């Protein structure tokens, strides 16, 4: 039963991300590039060393990813005022807006549509079932 539940949750998550994944594909953004941008979007930038540690990829790999994203205008390297030898990497305004607003919309849209199609009793059963599963998982 656990394998089936895990499989269903995985399939649901994949369906919810389908539109978002299509948008990334249209923009020719790779998985590692997306990982780097997601790591950067929460703050005001990171050094290459911090970013490499954050995404658990080699320094040289992250450096190449940043180079490609920088050429596309998706990230910028900013020189530190206090130490001109240090640079921070930050996402562009357009990327920040997309990651904060559009990406969640693309993920939630299929769920909103599905819940809209559900009968009130079905929505209640879904809500209760998820609450029970969450409670049982938290009890560990």
Question: Which features does this protein show?
Answer:
Arc Repressor Mutant, subunit A, mainly alpha
3D architecture notes:
The structure is a single chain. With 140 residues, the protein is mainly α. The chain has one domain (2-138): Arc Repressor Mutant, subunit A (Orthogonal Bundle), CATH 1.10.10.10. The chain is 72% helix and 7% strand. The protein has six helices and two strands; from the N terminus they run H-H-H-H-E-E-H-H. The protein has helices at 2-26, 31-41, 48-55, 59-71, 93-117, 120-138, and strands at residues 75-79, 87-91. It has a two-stranded antiparallel ribbon. Helix 1 packs across helix 5 and helix 3 (48-55) crosses helix 4. The mean pLDDT is 92.
